[in-house]
Amino acid sequence: MSSKRLPSETRIIRDVERVLAQSIPPAWSLKTKSETPGKGKRIDLLVEVTSPDGEIARFAIEVKRTIEPRSVPMAAEQISMLTTSTMPEAIPVVAAGYLSARTRELLNDFDVGYIDTTGNIRIESSAPGLFVLTQGADSDPWPQDVDLRSLRGRGAARAIRAIIDTAPPFGTRELAGATSASAATLSRVLELLEREAIVTRQPRGPVLAVDWKAAIRRWAEDYDQTTSNTATTFLDPRGIPSIEKKLQTTKLAYAATGAFAAQRFNPIAPARTATLYVDDVTKTADRLGLRETEAGANVVLLEPFDPVVFERATTRDGLRCVAPSQLAADLLTGPGREPSQGEEILEWMQENEDAWRT
Amino acid sequence: MPGEPDPLYVRARAALLDATDALAAQIDALVLVGAQAIYLHTGDAHLAVAEYTTDADFTIGPAELHDSPLLAELLTARGFTTREHPGGWLSPDGIYVDLMVPEALAGAGTRGARLGVHGKRVARRAKGLEASLVDHAPMSITALDSTDPRSVTMQVAGTGALLIAKVHKIHERTAAGDRVRDKDALDVLRILQAIETSFLSQRLDHLRAHELSAAVTDEGIAQLAPLFGRIDAVGVEMAIRAAGVGADPDTIAASMTALVSDLLAEL
């Protein structure tokens, strides 16, 4: 994929005005001002939005061509301070050509509004009361392919699993020695996570902190339970309890995932489907007495994209389950109600960090 | 799944023990049948159950029944009351208790079973229960409420007999256009799922070889394919309705037809 040229800052300012004008409520009006009071650093774009009653909300917008998550704290602080000193009644906002989900999340954490030219907007004013939240593009229309941009693939998965499952501090080489991830891939994945403000590390030194929840969510953007792995569907006519019973005594290599495994962590609703990673689909189906079917399947056998899915699997209540980090990524990208169960597993992981992070 | 059994099921088990307490002097003539017998075999004590699955159903073997004490007196002495039809009783706690005699042994008549000095209203006649007097074994049945210390050891119909009884009931009622409980079809699926096919086929072979049960067993087997052999068969649709929204209809249909076809292949 060739990188498209990033638009110029002038072009971005024009586009920001345009998307903003399109998203304010019908009876409201919008005016932009290029001149700003005060000396020294000036506000890039000042927008006044007038309510039907004539009340005015002012937004002081810092415009960047591009902004990575790790630059958010500085940019947010800059615009907030500038606003406080030059126009205290204005609301600070950061704008760019495109803002990733992670960047938007961080800006929101810093209480700074955001606008991008693809239509991702969150701005809020209390007097006059105005709240605009719209969804634009999910992926960067102008990707710059200088660095690792994706966590797709086997090497990246081994690395991200190792990074999530290990309690910092740790060094790249040390982690490569202790897991199936290679030092080279680990280092590229860590760079990506650092750019996205998910890991913190000393310059050329060990990793000091990992926001493991954000790391799982970032991985889930590039990974997918049903398409990254090869799925075949089967029927056990005797139902899920029968599969559970057979798995308690089997010598087959397997690890349960999806709603089936989630139940062992947080028993809410019984699973309608048993999803298992296995090393040999045909042999497993044969030994467990499963019949291949398309309609009415209650067992899904996954041929894993990489053996890393079996790493750090644990037996819970007689069932071998993938590690919580793998389970969370599988659920978040799984079918039906699984994504919401993924959120519940993330909570379980938060409350039981000692149980899975070593 | 661990957990407390459904409160209604706890009450139904208690009513069953109320009935066996009352009928202790005649317990050798009774065989437990119906949903409560099925759950003893399939181990589904933690299922959420519907109101009508909680009846306590008994087959009476006339040959084992003593002339005294009278069944009706035993029941009324413990507060059981009669319902409209012969054989229908209501426990003091409001749970239905049904006393039934297999058609082949029930004598003349259309509803009530002729039981000599016990009269013709204490039990009703029912086709398909013959097998429960051939295929049964003693089981110990305890209360599900931990504060209730009672237990009884009594004859419980085997899975082959229970399957034949359910198939007859569904067939008779669907053929006659009578109201039929969807739950009965789900009970058939429970038996097919919980019991190994080879074991079930041996039980059915045994029942076919016995004079009392041969005819009803053959008839029951002959109804398996029309009722449950295709995904759009009437019994399959009943099971899907009874399973409710928590289950995938396609899975129920595929499971039922696969298990019935396995069983028929072994017979």
Q: What labels describe this entry?
A:
heterodimer; A: about 350 residues; alpha+beta; 7-stranded mixed sheet; 5-stranded mixed sheet; 14 helices; 16 strands; about 40% helix; elongated; B: alpha/beta; 8-stranded mixed sheet; globular
- Low-confidence runs of chain B: none
Strand elements of chain A, count: 16
Mean pLDDT of chain B: 91
- Which word captures the global form of chain B? globular
Taken as a percent bin, the fraction of beta residues of chain B is 5-15%
Q: Of all protein chain pairs, which has the greatest interface, and how many residues does each chain bring to it?
A: A-B, 16 and 18 residues
Give the amount of beta strand of chain A, in percent: 15-25%
Tell me how many strands of chain B there are. 8
Sheet with the most strands: spatial strand order of chain A: 1-2-3-4-5-6-7
**Sequence of secondary-structure elements of chain B:** HEHEHEEEEEEHHHHHH
**SSE string of chain A, helices as H and strands as E:** HEEEHEHEEEHHHEEHHEHEHEHEEEEHHH
Distance between the termini of chain B: 34 Å
Helical element count of chain A?
14
Structural class per helix/strand content of chain B? Answer: alpha/beta
Put simply, the count of helices of chain B is 9
* Rounded mean pLDDT score of chain A: 91
Biggest sheet details of chain B: 8 strands, mixed
Radius of gyration of chain B: 18 Å
